Amino acid sequence: MSETELKHISEDYQWGFADEVEPEVKLKGLTPEVVRAISEIKGEPDWLLEFRLKALETYFEKPWPRWGPDLAELERQMDDFYYYVKPPARENARSWDEVPEEIRRTYEKLGIPEAEQKVLAGVGAQYDSEMVYHSIKEELEKQGVIFKSIEDGVREHEDLFREYFAKVVPPTDNKFAALNSALFSGGSFVYVPPGVEVEVPLQAYFRVNTEGFGQFERTLIIVDEGAKVHYIEGCTAPIYTTEALHTGVIEIIVRKGAESRYTTIQNWPINMYNLVTQRALVEEGGYHMWLDGNLGSKVTMKYPSSVLRGPGARSEILSIAFAGDGQHLDTGAKLIFAAPETSGSIVSKSISKGEGRSSYRGLVKVLSRADRARVNVECDALLVNENSKTDTYPYMEIANETASVGHEATVSRLADDQIFYLTTRGIPEDEAAALIVRGFIEPVAKELPLEFAVELNRLIELEMEGSVG
Fold first, then answer.
1. Does residue 340 contact residue 347 with C-beta atoms inside 8 Å?
2. Is the dihedral of CA 266, 270, 272, 275 positive or negative?
3. Helix, strand, or coil here: 49?
4. 32-42 and 46-61 helices cross at what angle (nearest 10)?
5. Does residue 336 sit in helix, strand or coil?
6. Can you list the alpha helix ranges (DSSP code H) found in 226-276?
7. 28-57 pLDDT, tens per residue?
8. What is the gyration radius of the CA atoms in the chain, in angstroms?
9. At 444, is the secondary structure helix, strand, or coil?
10. What band does 468 get if pLDDT is binned at 50, 70 and 90?
11. What is the distance between the alpha carbons of residues 251 and 305, in angstroms, rounded to a whole number?
12. pLDDT, tens digit, for every residue of 355-409?
């Protein structure tokens, strides 16, 4: 990316600031020595080091995916990234006063402490490779709710952690799950005991500050029988002339009769490769929702998935993708029906502007034992300009004749007559376009907590500035 392009993009991306923070440790290169160093810094047990080293072998054995966006440039750069960067901060501070001032200022700009006070049950804040802050409300802690960094999850709850870790997304799942398994650092470990309902959300915020960096957070959430939780994730990074990499893995286990929701609002800069694996395993009578918002990044490949393993299990996947110039957002969803009376739905909304490209890639798989499974898929694309692009790649494998399966897809352009009507009512052209886009994504946005819906609408308005006319 040229300096000229960088300057132009930075004017529109208000989270593109970088902090003058000198890391304590920076590890470069994709080698067993780097993996061993990460494990040693964290003081991990031998079994976890062995897991990491085996995952690195798996990463090198698996071929690069050629079925989606072009990753050739990333493939050439893999030896150039910093794979672990330790900020100069005490890990997992319980008070913002314990976080170094220069890092605390970043989160104040992002509004995280204020949101914690007003609307959140707990907050985790990751800076480069480490969680620098983690806190949960005392009343939830007394009920046995665990909300820790992934490292504290291993140290303080090793047996529980080991029982579930990498069972939903093993390293062999795909090349980037293997990469994360070898290098993971930071992320959250959440356990909600049977019958406990966490009424307000937990949130983790992931911030990249270092140039040429790869972030590999790992999140493991266990929602025990009859429990309930909502977890929200947000992400930003500065804009640099070099590329950056984000490869996360999220594993969620929803036990019998439990309910969970995972909301992601990712607003990466245009130099970021965002390659994420998210999967939930839903047991009998359980319910899980993925609410997935994707803005920014150079390339995104992300397909939240749910495996409905128990009778009566349900899942909804709602997603938004917004692709602008120089961006290819390849997003979608997967639903696997593995038990009778299971049900699910996918609603995908994508917007492409300028020369941006959005792709929907989805899988619906109904196994032979999933009697009377029900699923409906809606994927709608909106093209803002003549040069913007969209693709739809739906896959359906139905092995049970009692299943009820519906699929519909639409592609439309931002209509000149709609813009004209709104401008005749005194609404400026950019605002009119943003208003139409907000209406387009409303079925997904309305599921967000109010504060995050407002933020999403503000981001859409920023993206739409200068898009028409």
1. no
2. positive
3. helix
4. 150
5. strand
6. none
7. 999 999 999 999 999 999 999 999 999 999
8. 21
9. helix
10. low
11. 10
12. 999 999 999 999 999 999 999 999 999 998 888 999 999 999 999 999 999 999 9
How many residues are there in the chain? 469
Please give the sequence-ordered ranges of beta strands (E in DSSP) within 146-270, or none if there are none: 146-149, 188-192, 202-207, 214-215, 218-223, 228-236, 244-246, 249-254, 259-268
The CA angle 447-299-261, to the nearest 5 degrees, is 25
- Token pair of 30 as six digits: 């994709």
Give the SS3 label for residue 178: helix
DSSP readout, 281-301?
EE-TT-EEEEEEEEEE-SEEE
Closest to 448 in 3D by CA, of 303, 234, 247:
234
Determine whether 110 is exposed, middle or buried from the number of CB atoms within 10 Å of its CB (0-12, 13-18, 19+).
Answer: middle
Structure tokens at 118: 């007003």
- How many CB atoms are closer than 10 A to CB 242? 12
Name beta bridge partners: 393.
361
The model carries a pTM of 0.87
66 contacts: CB under 8 Å, gap ≥ 6: none
Single-letter residue type at 3: E
Tokens of 181: 């398994």
The CA distance from 207 to 229, in Å, is 23
Tokens of 177: 């799950």
Residue tagged 């493991």 (tokens): 220
Contact predicate 24/103, CB 8 Å: no
3-state helix, strand, coil in the chain (%, to 5): 30, 35, 35
What span, in angstroms and rounded, lies between the C-alpha atoms of 402 and 375?
12
* Gap between the Cα atoms of 263 and 261, Å rounded: 6
Task: State how far the Cα of 67 lies from the Cα of 332, in Å rounded to an integer.
Answer: 14
Backbone torsions φ then ψ of 453, nearest 5 degrees: -65, -40
